[in-house]
Amino acid sequence: MNYVALVSATTLQRVQVTVGPHGSVTGVSTVDALLRAMRSPHDCCIVVDPTMLGHAGADALVAAFRDVPRSIVVYAPIAREALEPSVALAQQTAAQFVFQGAPNERSALGHALLLAPDAALGVALTTALEPMLLQLPHQLRLTLASMLRTGTGPATGEALAAHAGIARRSMDRALAAARLESSKFLIAAARLVRVYRAIVASRLPFRQIAAMAGYASQRTLDHHCTTFFGHSSAWLRRHPPSVADAVRNLTERVTLDEGVHSESAVS
Amino acid sequence: MNVVPFLEALSVATTNDEIIRARVGLATMQLYASMVAQDTPIERVVTMAERLHGELEEVGRITPPDVALRRVLEALPYWAPPAGPVLGRHAVHLALIRYGEALFKALEPATGIEVLTRTAIDAELAGDLSAAAQARLIAGFALRARAEWDASWEMYVRAQELAGEAGEHEIAIRARIGQGNNMLLRGDLPGARTHLRAVATRARRLCPEILWRVLLAQANVENLGGNFDLAIALAYRALSVSDPTPEGQYPALVDLAHFFTDYGAPEVAREALTAVATIAPEANIRVQAQLNLLYLAVQQADRPGFDAAARVLVHSRKTVHQQALIELFLAQGHRTFGELAEARAACERALRAAGENALHQISFQAEEERQRIDAAIREGTPDRATAPVEARTTLPPRMRRIAAAVVATARSAVAADAMAPPSAGAGAA
């Protein structure tokens, strides 16, 4: 994986240390260079410090993301000049945010970079599920769409309901009415969106991927891969499915229209 | 919201800076509370946050809580931007956590804990479980430093639960390490050992980047239990798996030096501790290094070293645990140097500090120390039973290797610090 970073020199060093042997990091000094790298045919992950991006730069990045969805990691201080562009990126891209100075900053940055989700997969999946998502209450729809696009979000049904600001039972009813699977299935699907690229397009050990993504073990990761894609993680790395196939598999598993799925499949 | 800690800070403020700080802090928290309750339209919040930000500019000497408070005021207007509230709220919660932490570190623990607790509750209600877990983790640490054991334990338990729900393994594991340290400080060594062993297994599997924290906690347990070799081996492993930057290595270095003191290799300890006490950016780590230098001076009956370390520590900010330990070491030192009246007084202070804060391990040590002092007073001669601890003339090969690595790490940290450009923030933490 190639990481293209518009960040300060010290932050660039931190990104390089975090990525280690699992990718190459290229520093750029202007927004134009960043956009050029983003639009190049080779897949990459964009790392930006929003203070260096500015408002216009954030708008340009949003426009480029619409044309070519790429993984974006925003590594930001909590300051006025960073929050303004960050809000634009949060609303209109699948960016992941790591705030400097948080107690878990180091591991959060590691997870965001090494498990950078496949932006094309996330966008295609939310597009495919849009008719169902549109039937959900506003906040639940936003939370679920963001979860499925970025692969990050609440890890339990209760947490998802709390995030969406509704009761757990109301959420379950809303999901069923929208012909969507249970929250457990949706959370499992989002987690697979998160690890998909690391599985099929990196050399990260599966054990490390499983640990970073919060699976109990590599076996659990394999179990989830088999449930959603029909194959183990090792098989997927050897025979990477196309994004369209992956979206089709995920969509079939998280909607109620294609037969009955066992709840225990992701427990 | 409980504003009493803020009002207390305001009532004891004497300088203009202190008054501004307390007033703006209180106003900011009230503004935040009214925003959470949706009593204030966002436009008014923006205007008022701007005004408070301007008032804070009048402070003459900027401290870390001032910087953190500015960040809170800068984040507040983004609390609920249309169609994207999650990021703004998360940023506000994180800014408040940093403010609470900065207040706690600046010796305003009551105010800091109030900010952290309030943030934890609000974040949880808003569904921002990651921020809620982080706030509770730091509140747990702050409460532990004040020896409020039960409250600290509860904070850690809830932090762990919330972190689990939010998928934040690092926070969950750190909360469990906090519980282990809680047991250790209260003298429950077997419980701490068993607990930390389980945490280490989990950390290895889920979050190897914080394994060093578990190893250090385990090393402390072993050192207190008298297994010095194992303690050094564990701490050395912590040093080798910690963040490779000097800042990441200071805590492991301080503990390793402490263990080498107990092991009988004072020169290794002195070099490492002097380096960290001089250059570590975090005040708490500097105090810990200085505390260990005091201990080393007592063990070595080094009068100039004892006086120098005691002088520095008098003017440092300390946790209650550190304060109790300092008094204990002062008592031991004064007895060693034949100053029995001073030793008795320091021992009484150590007993009081340890008793008031349920620091059982220190209580036992202070009780033993008092018996020794009383015996020395009865006999009418200064007790030299704690004559200088003999330095080992030769170290086993493994310990020699570790000692060389510790000295090399300390020297490279000093060299890196000398080459680094001066930073405004250095030493302010």
Look at the helices and sheets of chain A and give the structural class. Answer: alpha/beta
Helix and strand sequence of chain A: EHEHEHEHEHHHHHHHHHHH
Give Rg of chain A in angstroms. 18 Å
**Most extensive interface, chain pair and sizes:** A-B, 34 and 40 residues
Strand proportion of chain B: under 5%
DSSP helical segment count of chain A: 15
Strand content of chain A: 5-15%
> Can you tell me the CATH class of the largest domain in chain A?
Mainly Alpha
Distance separating the two termini of chain A? 31 Å
Contiguous helical run count of chain B:
20
Distance between the termini of chain B: 27 Å
Q: How confident overall, as mean pLDDT of chain A?
A: 87
Q: What is the number of E strands of chain A?
A: 5
Number of strands of chain B: 0
CATH fold description of the largest domain in chain A:
Arc Repressor Mutant, subunit A
Helicity range of chain B: over 70%
Level-2 CATH architecture of the largest domain in chain A: Orthogonal Bundle
> What topology, given as strand order, has the largest sheet of chain A?
2-1-3-4-5
The low-pLDDT segments of chain B are: 422-429
Low-confidence stretches of chain A: 259-264
